[in-house]
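Let us begin with a simple case.
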Amino acid sequence: MTAGNLDTFTKESPSVPKALLFTKSTGSPMIYKALSVSFESKIFFGIVRSSEELLMDKYGITKVPAIVLIKANEKLPKKYDGEMNYKMIFEFFNVYSEAFVAGGGSSVDSSASKAWL
């Protein structure tokens, strides 16, 4: 994502929230890939490299990695300020996605601990 194509990205499908990961990494983190699969067509994902100083300044990003969620009907973007782990980020995205997505919890079968099931 660059300053040149951000406008197109944010205005495409305006009803769908957009997530931006600000990073100095050259690749795509596995957590971010997994989140994009979990929220497919519910949130659009973009990656902004820390070398994009205009975008870093625009969103007030001072350290990376950082995640910002943009919703068309809200003036200010939502900054994620929790730990950089899948479950916490999933819960953050799930609150702001247009439809709640099942999952995000432990991969351990929780039905085993519920005697009534």
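The second case is a distinct protein. As before, the sequence precedes its structure tokens.
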Amino acid sequence: MPVALVDQLYFTRESWRIGLTGLTEREAETAFDPQNSISWMVGHLAAHEQTLWLKIAQGHELDTTVNLCRPGQPAVNPPYDAMLAAWEQIIVAANTYLDALTPQDLQGFLTLNNEPMRESIGTMLHRLIYHYWYHLGELQAIRQQLGHTDLPQFIGRIPESAQYRINP
């Protein structure tokens, strides 16, 4: 069983998936200036996960197209289906690493260029979870601008998926 904080990431991803439900490619690729498109957000979160859990933690990348959605890159509206497929592939690969983490690992630091990173693995998990929630709010706002009216009114399925527990 993954550590509790990893479970929170998985719950957050489930909430992200719920927020994407019912979108068309055209809608996901629409940008309301100055906001980015939803397809960009999917690629952006995929790039964040890939950077942390695949590139830095394990030394490899699965899909370099998501790097178009990294901070500092020119604005793009990438194909939604490609970004969603990349996100799915990246999180499946990331889960192998995340599922093996222990509570002690969360206090440790990944290394980049032979130097420990400034944030612990646990802090990076927190940052990623909060990053998802930031974009989930933005996603809901864009869906409202697109005219969607039947949006989720609460945060996920907490009783089934996010019960409080203490790590063993």
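The beta strands are 111-112, 115-116. The mean pLDDT is 92.
Keep these points in mind for the review questions at the end of the chapter.
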